[in-house]
């Protein structure tokens, strides 16, 4: 698996296509604010390499904020501030000598609403990240990368004959897989997915879930989901977020997904996973 060991039209591919090793992601004592409104309070979570971690919990408890902190998107909001550390393989993504572009390249993000560049071709959508990160790739390598990423995203067979068609012409589920392919093109080590199936029908949802289960051999995945069946189908580990009575959000319970659903420790987890709130 991976992008490595590829040969395109007789040419050996170069480093850009090589798969980086799997990485663990670790959040330590993350607190977050918008202005003086604190939305997360000292959240720590280890997201192990090569597994899918689900973040669950009611709306407004800070799951998306937490996810955005994991790839330095939180700082794009002018009023936002944070405390704590995010380590990818023990290296702080917020350290002063680490460039923002490196953090973004190593930690990809897929959003709830599929957001390919609609007028741009499917082919160009996949490699859009290379332009943004200033990565130079030859034509043959580009072709190989596009095929490889679309294959990994489970979309290659459906689009191989229309790579020049606009991304916006695809169905919702296909657009989401195109976004996954786009995020893979910069060979991230972690893929963050914020409710990636909420806007999709059940069939497309299952296709994306199968894609995730394949992908996790190559890239560590963190997913926010409101779908309890989905959390159980895809994730090895699960964290339950809650913000009680005007307090900032935090993790009530985390651990093995199977255990959390079958015998949760906290009564609030029990109520949430059983649909009481
Ligand atoms: P979740 O993803 O769990 O629904 P969010 O992380 O989106 O939760 O939101 C957590 C809290 O932060 C909420 O109270 C929300 O209103 C607030 N919030 C989120 N984004 C912003 C923003 N850009 N500006 C101000 N407050 C925000
Ligand atoms: Mg959210």
From TrEMBL:
<protein>
    <submittedName>
        <fullName>Phosphate transport system ATP-binding protein</fullName>
    </submittedName>
</protein>
<keyword id="KW-1278">Translocase</keyword>
<keyword id="KW-0067">ATP-binding</keyword>
<keyword id="KW-0813">Transport</keyword>
<feature type="domain" description="ABC transporter">
    <location>
        <begin position="25"/>
        <end position="273"/>
    </location>
</feature>
<keyword id="KW-0547">Nucleotide-binding</keyword>
<dbReference type="GO" id="GO:0005524">
    <property type="term" value="F:ATP binding"/>
</dbReference>
